[in-house]
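Bench notes, afternoon.
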Amino acid sequence: MIFNRKNTLIQGFAALMLVLALTGSGCSKKQKADEGTDVAADANLLGDSDSGKAGGLQTINFPYDSFTLTSEAKAKLKANADMLKDKVTVKVQIEGHCDQRGGIQYNIALGEKRANAVKSYMEELGVAADRITTISYGKERVLDARESEDAYAKNRRANFVITAR
């Protein structure tokens, strides 16, 4: 009797999994973005600035142990703000990152300062604050794991992730 109940449970579970798999496969229709454009047409808005797939938004790099925006960073942020002003429904998350040196807590705080510095400047350039969120990953998500000055420089950054179109 127990064997039969176990078989029935296994068969029921297998049937449920089959139904779920078939139901999920029917969801492949084109989705529409808020503005009525095909998501496929906005494929360049499906990633982050580190990968180059964030609609032209550029990653901002920082000097060692700093959250000060350089003139080069400000120029990139001006271009980022212009893009966001053109695409009024796009929302972004700014991720603050550090290189591998230093303690975890210190780098989380520094990454937060970097993300907030970028957000503040974007707001000064006219991007609404409610379209921007921030997060710090400290030294947990490096782009280049090598231990060299070139690699460290790549990792000291604030990148943009599109969170809504």
